Amino acid sequence: MEKLFKLKEHNTTVKTELTAGLTTFLSMVYILAVNPSILGDAGMDPAAVFTATAVSAAIASLLMAFLANYPIALASGMGLNAYFSYTVCTELAEQGIQDPWKIALAAILVEGIIFILLSLVKFRETLVNKVPANLKLGITAGIGLFIAIVGLKGAGIVVSEPSTLLTLGDVSSPQVVLALVGLIIIAVLYHFNVKGSILIGILVTWIFGMIAQVGGWYVVNPEAGNSSLFPSFDGGFAPTAPTMFAFDFSYVSGHLIDFAVIVFSFLFVDLFDTAGTLIGVASKANLLDKDGNLPKVGGALMSDAIGTVVGACMGTSTVTSYVESSAGVAQGGRTGLTAVTAAGLFIVALFFSPIFIAIPGFATTPALVFVGLLMISSVKNMDFSEDMAGAVGGFLAIIMMPFTYSIANGIMFGILAYVIIKVFTGKVKDIHPVMWISAALFALKIVTLIIK
Questions:
Q1: Where in the cell is it found (predicted)?
Q2: Would the pTM count as exceeding 0.90?
């Protein structure tokens, strides 16, 4: 252990690292309940998604441990999975495409390969520094709002209304009541620094749901989308095989620009999500050097890139570093042994798939809304006083994601606004080439929308 992870050098012990790994796992294991639910809405098999999510998380976390020796675990990213299902797959389905998730997986595969190449030439860390801070923060906050509205919609707290676009759902329904109770539970547990507060909130909400079903308040009605809340163990505890290599590249030839925008949006969100997480968690673990740089960042970014490729091949959305790893760091985690522990626990969780798959959407709503809260908190670091281009771009990213129900639209309007305002305020020199390329790509996307 000492030779592999240099425990003494990082002033830690095996016991501390194991405890930290357990803490990190408990803080992020909610993804095993949430991801099958979200990707299931895109037409994927929830059981297969569960297996893919657990295995890809384990592999990526092990890569992080041995390539970078960082106490950071990885799994399918929140926000990226929502973009996968509710933007990419929804828009493709509206075009009459069958199994749109296969095209989305192909886009993730391409994104992962591009990330590997960018990591090899050390371009990713340079790229991150050239995108305006306000835009990065606005994108993060916007994704938080988007995740929150996805959760609210899933529990029926927010429903469509022709005259007002959105309105409050039936507050007497068990789904709405229990989802709101679950959110309060998570908030209270989080306040008291309870380990695994999000997971506990999901499980307690689910248990209350089962009690409601037994008492007759929650009525099972598959036609209305109300399935039984009790897990079925008919198939035993053996995990379902993942959907391997389910890629569809036939869409690319006739929709090259649309496919490129999909890939770029995955790429852009994952890029800053990963960078922000690595820097944030590493700073808490005192892993930054005297210049504020992250040693072995290349290995960390490569872990993320390979994890994304592995996840796509197995049938799950983009794999990324988890900010919840900071919970393990708070428990003393300082080395890759923390990530190894979390990886091992993801493998153990594979054999409890019937339990995770049975967790209903309204029980995961509290997790989605609370993660949205954590992400939107980045808005407090935005500077609205000096850089008007960055402020407007960041603000458009925040509002366009939830209001157009698309993460890609938020990124698109944010980048275009930034570039255009910089041009008209005489600050063309401030625009980095990566922003010009991004703006040109999104401008082409708008052209294709107009032509259609």
A1: Cell membrane
A2: no
